[in-house]
Specification:
The protein is an alpha+beta fold. It has helices at about 15-25, 60-65, 70, 85-95, 145-150, 155-165, 170-205, 210-235, 240-245, 245-260, 280-300, 335-355, and strands at about 10, 45-50, 55, 100-110, 115-125, 130-140, 265-270, 305-315, 315-325, 330-335, 360-365, 370-375. The chain folds into three domains: about 10-170, Beta-Lactamase; about 175-235; about 245-375, Heat Shock Protein 90 (2-Layer Sandwich), CATH 3.30.565. It is about 45% helix and about 20% strand. β8 and β9 (about 315-325) form a beta hairpin. The radius of gyration is 23 Å and the shape is globular. This is histidine kinase. One of its GO terms (cellular component) is membrane. It holds the Pfam family HisKA_3.
Length: about 375
């Protein structure tokens, strides 16, 4: 258990993934044909205790509220609500604590204090040996204009869900995420570089050459870090290797890179798919799925062998990632793991299912894990 994690709130990965499946079904019962997430990076997800304390949050949820994931851990949801709505929010959380699934509207204020109207969808997750539940929480920006939201609070859950579109997470969400990264990350980094360069220039004019030289050395390091940030943002838009090499070659290069960086793991790549066999709109998500699965194996599985398979099947494509490490089923997730690994695997699930594919994870006790994804192509 993580030292900072509340006792009794260890969350198993298998339970977290199952809770996400149930949440999707419960939140859109009348829209079975609607993809639940158009881009997995857009879904704002967090794991809360029954009283509404954040155990973990993914980057999208944290950005929505103006915090980092680490800053949200330990905060109480009711403390983010306006003073006159705290009691109502506490009441809704009390309902969630006694139900398997509960949706309700809420108004939350982020770091800057600006109120944001949201729909919260909460699914219970078994937690710890006591059987107490954590709450997997999806934060959805409401489509209902301001005055109507108050009326929505008086509607039954089913009626409220009928009037809202579940997970409006497409291009606009991704643009908002990128805008936040460019402004808060890259923008601040460039501002700091500018100030450091100006400070060095003033020192040179005062004759403090040695001090200026040290400051310029630090500025160069900061510029290198900023270049890395730019590359990361560009890579999230579309991996460069896909355009340079094609998907099969990019996957092979990924396997070799993983094997070089983790000396204790042997990575085998089996592929009978040509780049022309893969629809263009699937390539980036297939690559991201493999990348996420392999990184999870290196970080968490304690494996010595992993095999990435990518092959044609009747009517489509199948990717499998099989390792010989410890299975995830009985391994509790710390607060950090629940954010980085648990919600990451949920993101993998939605990358596949948003394109009509199927996704599964099988754990073989202490003898390994098999991740499978299939797409129609």
């Amino acid at each position: 258990m993580d030292a900072n994690e509340p006792a009794g709130h260890q969350v198993k990965l298998v339970d977290l993934i199952e809770a996400m499946r149930k949440l999707c079904i419960a939140a859109r019962p009348h829209e079975p044909g609607t993809g639940s997430v158009t881009d997995a990076r857009g879904a704002a997800l967090a794991v809360l205790t029954p009283d509404g304390t954040f155990l973990s949050a993914n980057r999208t949820a944290a950005a929505l509220l103006g915090y980092s994931s680490a800053e949200l851990a330990g905060k109480r949801l009711v403390d983010l609500a306006p003073d006159d709505l705290c009691v109502a929010l506490a009441g809704e959380l009390s309902v969630s604590a006694h139900r398997e699934f509960h949706s309700f509207p809420a108004v939350l204020c982020g770091r800057i204090g600006h109120p944001t109207r949201l729909m919260l969808h909460q699914q219970s997750v078994p937690s710890g040996q006591t059987g107490r539940s954590a709450l997997l929480t999806l934060f959805e920006e409401s489509l209902i204009p301001g005055p109507e939201l108050a009326d929505a609070t008086r509607l039954p859950d089913a009626s409220a869900r009928d009037r809202l579109t579940y997970l409006t997470m497409g291009q606009q969400k991704e643009r908002q995420r990128l805008a936040a990264e460019l402004h808060d990350g890259l923008g601040q980094a460039l501002t700091l570089v500018k100030l450091m360069a100006e400070d060095a220039l003033m020192r040179i004019r005062r004759g403090q050459v040695d001090d200026a030289a040290q400051l310029l050395d630090a500025t160069v390091l900061r510029i290198r870090e900023t270049i890395g940030d730019v590359r990361q943002i560009c890579g999230e838009l579309r991996p460069v290797m896909l355009d340079q090499l094609g998907l099969p070659a990019a996957l092979g290069s990924l396997c070799r890179r993983i094997e070089r960086s983790a000396e204790h793991i042997s990575v085998v790549f089996n592929c009978d798919v040509g780049d022309e066999d893969v629809p263009e709109h699937l390539k980036a998500d297939i690559f991201r799925l493999a990348q996420e699965a392999l990184n999870n194996t290196v970080k968490h599985a304690a494996a010595t062998e992993v095999t990435l398979g990518f092959r044609r099947i009747a009517g489509g494509l199948l990717m499998t990632i099989l390792d010989n490490g410890v299975g995830y089923e009985n391994r509790p997730l710390s607060t950090e793991d629940a954010c980085a690994t648990g919600l990451g695997l949920i993101g993998m699930q939605h990358r596949v299912e948003s394109h009509g594919g199927t996704f599964s994870i099988q754990s073989f006790g202490t003898s390994g894990t098999l991740v499978s994804a299939a797409w129609t192509a």
